[in-house]
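Standup notes
- HV: blocked on the assembly model, inputs below
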Amino acid sequence: MPDLDTIVNLCKRRGFVFPSSEIYGGLESCWDYGPLGAELKRNVKAAWWRSVVQERDDMVGLDAAILMNPRVWKASGHIDTFSDPLVECKKCHARARADHAPDMYRKALRECPKCRSTKVKDAVLHAPSADGAREQGADAKAAIRRLLAESYVECPKCKEHLPPRCPKCLDGEFMEPRQFNLMFKTFMGPVEEEAAVVYLRPETAQGILVNFANVLTSSRKKLPFGVAQIGKAFRNEVSPGNFTFRTREFEQMEIEYFVKPGTDEECHKRWLDDRLRWYTDLGMRRDNLRLRQQTADERAHYAKDCFDIEYQFPMGWSELEGIANRTDYDLKQHSKFCGKEQSYFDDETKTHYIPYVIEPSAGADRATLAFLIDAYHEEQVREEKRVVLKFHKALAPIKAAVLPLLKNRPEIVEVARDITRRLKRNFMAVYDDTAAIGKLYRRQDEIGTPYCVTVDVQSLEDKQATVRDRDTMEQVRVPIADIEAFLKEKLS
RNA sequence: GCGGGCGUAGCUCAAUGGUAGAGUGCCAGCCUUCCAAGCUGGCCAUACGGGUUCGAUUCCCGUCGCCCGCUCCA
């Protein structure tokens, strides 16, 4: 596996990804897709759309606005709970989730600071209930403060009440907890009035959920059915990083799949299979993928069950896609907040009910990065290192390059340019004559072009050209008149 | 946001309180009959802003960005 720096260098050098606004020193966690990166990401998104919309009868697409009525985020819970209350140690400056800190302290404790008993692993944490903290908005902060003030670990031996301290140095007290709301705020209209505050959506999902009724009536779909959407989302992450893996502006590929309650668990399983297979069908190595069930405390409060599809990135196993069973939580919330029941009328049972929602939520940038890393290969060819991106044909930014073996022969150049023109009508193709043939091949290898077409002197006689395969480097002669059809066949 | 490290050409890396070098890449020309050939010429850099100094890429401060850790997620 290449290290991340190798990938970052290649991306910069060949025009896959550049640092955003680089001439001004860049902007933290923001990246621009260059000419090849734009093609690659487009292909990833197109493959996803094809798989989850075009080829299915039970799915339709949607493209909702990034800016939405702020009440959406009140209903979804994002305004109140999409935040991490953090505390920081006054001594060692370690930080921890405020609501996890007391228990982290209990687990980290080796001996009682009072009686020196080492049996503290049996210690019990006494804490006021924090259940209300997540749902009650403004009260959440007070609840956290109460949690930190009132909870204590009781030493099993001397019964001393130990107030929670820093789980890292086991000594420092905490600073005042701070709330980070992860939503980007902006202002609708030219005047920055509080009344005009709107948010950049932190997930595309709500755009689908609030359109449930619209899609239902206009598409005449029956349960079970789903809605797919690709779009930008924004989160003020505490710590972005690892190249395009965690950025504050990112693109999601999300599905909300509506099902009859009771059928949700089986449907959830089917989506796990379908989504995992999507990655492997596009050439991602199965060994670099795994499915991991989230533990109860990892899951969002509304989720009944959730799995992560993880990829083995250079920095470790990390999430590509989360597939959650969101139950009827969202549609119920919107029913409550908008005053209109977001329900479905079931013709068979003649009953109204609020559907359950299975949500496969993938990161377009993460998928693009994973496909790039997975495609990266270094090989030894004649004592030289060959760098080749073995992209699936559907993902390769450029499908074919046309190369004249000799550029000082106008007849050859003319034939090659003519082939290029014809290929461009069908897919991304390029012409290149700026180096010797060996270097031209290596260039195309490094950007993952599956086929090179080489025109030589003999081509003028026999009207054939050489088609060279990226992965095997094998060559076949193909009549020039057939090249368009030949490559279309190969690439389909 | 906190702690630590770092920032020299498109990329990889040298050097220096006093003219910033190499490899590679890229461009042009010559040459070249299939896997990073050769020759000639050319292009490109001390992240940004301020300070100290006769003089700063080097020393100091700030900003921005990157990397590692804490934390979090698509």
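- HV (later): unblocked. The two ends of chain A are 29 Å apart (CA to CA). The longest helix of chain A spans residues 35-54.
- Next: hand off to the docking folks.
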